[in-house]
Design goal:
Elements (H helix, E strand, L loop, with lengths): L1 E9 L5 E10 L4 E5 L6 H8 L7 E6 L2 E2 L5 H4 L3 E4 L11 H6 L8 H6 L4 H13 L16 H12 L6 E5 L7 H18 L2 E6 L2 H7 L2 E6 L2 E6 L6 H8 L1 H13 L7
Parallel strand pairs: 3-8, 3-9, 6-7, 7-8
Antiparallel strand pairs: 1-2, 1-4, 4-5, 9-10
Helix pairs in contact: 5-6, 6-7, 8-10, 9-10
Length: 261
């Protein structure tokens, strides 16, 4: 479904963000990209939606190469969930959700906020699906909790029934319990709707609890690729370094939420 073929990214300042990354994410997989800050996680996700162009190598979705001429076709098939929610604070929760349909309507309608009725109905249905009842439809998102805001973000990501959902550190600003709730909700919705998820995280325990597969980056390279139960202390040392190894191992061993059914 998503193919990375020898992807390199070097920024203009000389920083190498990705150095020969190759792997394939099959349809329907919940794949976590794990690694510390600066390991290349966000850059990797941005190559999928065209916000970052590889210096060399290629990224493809369903066999279609991600490049400038294909973005108008691919972007409506990609949902995004952001670390800091990426919502418009002054707008209602329902309006934020329906804005997930912007790639599918004309610029004039988008500017005027003239969304088709079927999009408005779907926004309400998606809010209900993520546990936000009718009382939240008209609430401004600035008045909602962090967990509620990320539920709005998840609902928005599924507005156009995307085949791919990219989640860039979606629980970085949430407490552990809410983080687990949000990831459980994201995984359930993706499974229900047949979407492939590429989710970047730095929390080892959450990665092990919710992923079907973990791909760990270190210095822009893949240093681990496999199921979460194969992520060993040796791998953690390669990912986080010897200094962080004891902390990382303890987190992985003792902080697992209940498995998703």
């Amino acid at each position: 479904m998503i193919d990375f073929d020898d992807v390199h990214v070097r920024y203009p300042d000389g920083c190498i963000a990705l150095a020969g990354v190759s792997f394939r994410v099959p349809r329907g997989q919940f794949c976590v990209i794990l690694g510390p800050s600066g390991s290349g996680k966000s850059t990797l996700l941005r190559t999928v939606n065209g916000l970052v162009t590889p210096t060399s190598g290629k990224v493809a979705i369903g066999g279609v190469r991600v490049e400038r001429k294909s973005l108008s076709i691919l972007r409506p098939t990609i949902g995004m969930i952001h670390q800091h929610f990426g919502l418009v604070d002054r707008l209602s929760a329902a309006t934020n959700v329906v804005c997930g349909a912007l790639p599918a309507i004309s610029l004039a309608r988008a500017i005027l906020g003239l969304f088709p009725e079927h999009h408005r109905r779907k926004a309400c249905e998606l809010m209900a699906a993520v546990g936000l009842g009718p009382e939240h439809l008209r609430r401004r998102v600035k008045d909602m909790s962090g967990g509620q805001q990320q539920r709005v973000g998840i609902a928005r990501a599924f507005m156009l029934d995307p085949g791919v959902v990219l989640a860039d550190e979606p629980v970085a600003s949430l407490d552990p319990k809410i983080s687990a709730d949000v990831l459980r909700l994201l995984k359930d919705q993706a499974r229900l709707r047949g979407a492939t998820v590429l989710c970047s995280l730095h929390q080892i325990d959450l990665a092990c609890a919710f992923s079907d597969r973990i791909i760990a980056l270190g210095g822009g390279r893949v240093v681990f690729d496999g199921p979460p139960d194969q992520l060993s202390a040796e791998h953690l040392g390669r990912i986080y370094g010897d200094i962080a190894l004891s902390v990382a191992s303890a987190s992985s061993a003792h902080a697992h939420p209940e498995p998703v059914s």
